[in-house]
Amino acid sequence: EDQKDYNEKLDQEIKENPALFVIKFSTLFALKIKENIKDSFQFISLLQNLSSMFDMQADGCMWFLKYLTYNKRMIIEHLLKNKSDEERENFRALLINAIGLACKNEEKEFFKGDTNEYNMEVIAEYDQDKEKFYAKQVPKSVVIRFMQVFFEEILDDTRVHYQQFEDYFSVLKYFAELGIMETKYLIKAKGIHKLMDFSMNNCTPYNVKNRRPMGTAISEPKFKIPTQILSHLMRSCVTRGIKNSESYSSNYVGPKEHLHIDIPYEEIRLIMTRECFTIGLLGTNFDEFMAEMLTHLCWEDKNNSEFFMKELVFSMNIHKSNMGTLPKRKNLIKAVLSIEDGLQDQRIQRVFELDEEYKEELVAALMRDNKYSLLMIAKVTRKDYPLFTLEMINLVRELRNVPKVVLHLSKHQGQLSWIREFLIDSIEVIPSTYPIIRAGSKYEARHYLDMIDVCITNLSLVFPEWKDWFRLQKQAKQPPEDTKEEGAQENKQEGGNEPTKPVDDDFVNIDLTGADDDFKNVASAGVPEAASEKKDQEEGVTKKVTPQPDDASNGHESG
């Protein structure tokens, strides 16, 4: 009798909606093919056919999402556990297609009007333990019910499968960027906190006892897509600065007017701490997310601007001997200083302030109190950390297209004379301090000499009266013409057609173990092949190359 009833219901379903029946059958058949027969080609082919069917049958999308809602194991198996890239990509494409078509029909029913409350309905839910149905109140939208499983329940499972979680987050990113209602759901579901917690990978202050970080020494998780979603959610929210100024930040992507979504400050509270931002986030490679987050949160917000600028300057100061970390921090400072709002002048002053009242002997106390600017640090530490100072001067050069930065520097031009003197002196100091490429380091004398030339050229445009001064000083640094001729004659008398350079035995016999290819090529040639040295050879000038000591405690920053 049961089989007879089932057959009758099946016949009725086929008659009412044959296309939907084909979708149901094809879906279950494809999953069984994969599970039992392991036929990858047939599985992929069926998934692609299903995607085409969804385009013609909206009810099929709804049924598919309902099926996955009650069978979340299928999502985990095919989107996270599956080792086949092609199979995961096709399952992801099918899921994205189903979500997109379903949202077109349902997104207006996600919430009650402009409120944060879901539209609800009562459904019959089957209790397997008690073997009976009971009434359950759930969101009316099939998409919302699916996302409650997909995002709120499965997110933690992605930690175990970090090597394959990119397809999962690609689906989530697609959903987040579909429209206002989709973004609103994720924010209501505490998406900002959850994604921040996920991306910090159990680092303080998001560490949880007995939860292991993702990744190993040779396999790190890729957080690019999760942080892109996080950035989108944050930039969809209205901040205090936007409300108070009644103007939107340049990268705001949220709804306008009465549909505003307030940023959940309780969820970003941890970001506004040194432990999270300065020690945690600045140590990651979330460059795109960081720049977008800072420019949005600092917009017309004095407290946020003061915090982030103070921490960026602090971080630059404590890492001034670690040249590899400076580019990221410089880029963040450039992004924040380029925000054109009512607080731009204050942020510029925080970086470029130079007050004659600040004496160099007081700098230690000033640094303890965080009352120093980045340019002040560069000035007072220029003897011990010349490369750091040069990078900060280069930051001035890189911001020459920001009008308010140029205006601020022009007003305080008299306090910047040390910059031009430092640049001229560095032409001699840097080559003698960093004469060879260190093994494993990408920084070399030629790189900084080129930077000096670029800085001199561009600062001469910012401060036209410096142009002649630079020209005269550079001429004074050049050897006299008669000295050049004498050097050339001496080299010719020794039998060489071209002048040669003496090289220390220590440089020729330097240990190349662990050195990169560029370093080996230079060392094996006996002489660094820099453009400036070639020019010196043509002019007959000889230079002695002194090896750089490995001890980083000699008062200079390590390359």
Automatic annotation (TrEMBL):
Chain intervals for the UniProt region annotation (Disordered): 476-559
Basic and acidic residues bias (residue ranges): 479-495, 531-542
Coiled-coil intervals, chain numbering: none
Stretches assigned to the DUF3517 domain: 77-352
Protein's name according to its UniProt entry: DUF3517 domain-containing protein
